[in-house]
Amino acid sequence: MENNLNEQVLDKITKVCTCKAIPRSKIKDAIKAGAHTVEQVSKATGACTGGCRGYRCTPTIQNLIDKHLENN
């Protein structure tokens, strides 16, 4: 339980999209809600719409999608 709690806290403070300050928890929530492409996650969260246009966050978002799909 402690590891799960630590992961939840880290998800809330770890920014996936630094341009828009979007936390990993929001990205994961969008993926769990059915966004299974980077474009769908972007539409649901606003990620990939900052100054870098997704250059920095796209690989991390794709990795989170891949992990989710592997586990489900």
Automatic annotation (TrEMBL):
Gene3D superfamilies: BFD-like [2Fe-2S]-binding domain. Residues 16-66 form the BFD-like [2Fe-2S]-binding domain. This is BFD-like [2Fe-2S]-binding domain-containing protein. It comes from bioreactor metagenome.
